[in-house]
From TrEMBL:
The keyword Hydrolase does not apply. It comes from the Bacteria. Keywords: Signal. This is PEP motif putative anchor domain protein. InterPro entries: Ice-binding_C. The keyword Signal applies. Residues 171-193 form the Ice-binding protein C-terminal domain. Residues 1-24 form the signal peptide.
Length: 199
């Protein structure tokens, strides 16, 4: 029994020491950042901001990763909006959704009178070089038809997956935990040995 406990303690200690210096694997996590809009009031049970087309409207998503990101593997933008004009007597509005400082087009808003949640895929080129603790993404709405147009925006959610190094000192202290566990088991073995001598 003593040999079994001692071998477990040694194995845990070796694993702990190995992972302290090893950064050979990464773990996948998810992230999310929500921007709520409410400055214009309430419509049909939701707060909103009235978005006009002159000038173009922009805002920034600021993602704080739970652990420093090695890289971002996916990104999606979900918008909840209402009252994009679709009336027959007025040409439908065309609201282009753009992402990043380059204003890359990621889609257009659908015509709707009620609230709608629509998800857009963020192109890989906009997050391929993202690493570290934070990521800021600029979102812009550009209305491409004539006249003065507007719509109601309730919520914007940027979400997706990223990878992080669990052995990074800034993340989970797994090696130290295993080292502590191994040391504790050695201590238990020593106290058991002392108890057996007394009996």
């Amino acid at each position: 029994m003593k040999r079994f406990i001692l071998s477990i303690c040694l194995a845990l200690s070796i694993i702990a020491l190995g992972t302290i210096s090893s950064h050979a694997f990464v773990v996948t996590g998810d992230y999310s950042d929500t921007v709520d809009f409410y400055s214009s009031g309430t419509y049909d049970g939701r707060t909103y901001q009235l978005i006009g087309d002159n000038p173009d409207f922009s805002y920034t998503h600021s993602v704080d990763f739970a652990y420093p990101a090695v890289d971002v593997t996916s990104a999606f933008l979900t918008l909840t909006y209402s009252q994009v004009d679709s009336s027959w007597w007025n040409p439908a509005e065309v609201w282009v959704v753009q992402a990043g400082n380059s204003k890359t087009q990621i889609g257009t808003l659908d015509s709707t009178s009620g609230w709608k949640a629509e998800t857009f895929n963020i192109p890989y080129a906009l997050y391929s070089s993202i690493a570290g603790s934070t990521w800021n993404l600029l979102i812009t709405f550009d209305e491409t038809t004539g006249g003065s147009d507007s719509f109601k925006l309730d919520k914007s959610v940027l979400s997706g997956c990223y990878t992080y190094d669990p052995c990074d000192p800034g993340t989970v202290p797994e090696p130290a935990t295993m080292l502590l566990l191994g040391t504790g088991m050695i201590g238990l073995l020593g106290s058991r040995k002392r108890f057996m001598k007394k009996a």
